[in-house]
Amino acid sequence: MRHDRGAGEDRHGLPRVTVRARVLPVEDQVLPRQEEAGPQERRDGWPGLSNFGKQTPCVGGMALPEPNGMFLFYSVLGGISQIIFTVLLLWLFSFRNFTVGTTFSKTEIIQVALLGFLILGDTLTIGAGFAIVVAVVGVMVMSAAQSKVTVRTLLTSLTEKPTLIGLTCGAFLGMSVVFYRGSALALGYDGVVMAAAFTLAVSVVIQTVIMGIYIAIKEPRTLVDIFVHWRWTVATGIVGTLTSIGWFTAFTMQNGAYVRALGQIELVFTFIASVFFFREKTNNREVLGILLVCAAIVILILAR
Known about the structure:
single chain; two-stranded antiparallel ribbon; two-stranded antiparallel sheet; 3% strand; disordered N terminus
C-alpha cells in the first residue's frame, strides 16, 4: 500500500492527506510464500505430508540400501557356496591323505580370478596376474612343506578323490567370494562400508536360516548344544563377524582376486608368530614359500 501526502489543508484547517491504494493480484500475494517453502509443501499444502511413512531407514546416519532381485540372488548363491565349501573341507579331512587335497584347495585365488572374469567381468593386469600365480605357488609350497608332500606326490595324485575334492573346495570358496562381491555391487550404493555391512548382514541371515533348518531336522541335539555352550558360540561368532567385515569391505572395494591374493599376508604373520613366539622349527621349503608370498604381495601392489 502506498501513501502520497498532498499539500494544503481541508476546510477544517487540517492537513490534507491523499490516500491511493493498489491491490495486488492474488497470485502475487501467494507465490512469494510458496517459493520460501519446500517443493513438497507447495504440492501438498502441508510440510512433508506425502513423505509420511516413506522415510528411508538409517543406521549411524547412513540410509540403508534398497535390496533388489539381483542382490538377493547373489547373496543366496554366496551363502550356499560358502556352506558347500565348508562341508567339502570337513569331508576332505576324513581322508588319510587329505594334505594333498588341502594343498590343491589353495588354488582358489586363481579360481576367484577366473570366476570373477566370467561372472562379473572383473579383469586383471598382466602384472597382477603374475603376482597371483606367484602367490598360489608360494602358498602351495608352504602347504606341501608343512605336510611333507612332494611335487611328485602332487602330480601323481591329480586324479585321486582328495585332489578333486580339494579343487572343488577352492572352486566353491572362489564362487562365494565372487557372488558376495556381485551382491554388494548390485546394490548400487555409494558408501562402501554400508554396502559391505548390509551384504554381510543379509548373507549371515540367509546362512543362519539354511543351517538352522538343516540342524533342526537332522541333528536337533546339536541345536541344543549351541545354546548350552552359548559363551563359546558368541565368542566365535564375534571373531568371525569382525573378520568377515574386513573381507566384505575389501571385496566391495576391489577385485576379489586381488583381495584374496593380498590376504595371504596372514601366512606371513602366522609364520612370524610360530618362529618368534612359539619357537617352532621351520624348513627351507617353508621359508621359500613365505618369500614367494611376500614377493607376490609386493608385485601385486606395484602392478595393480
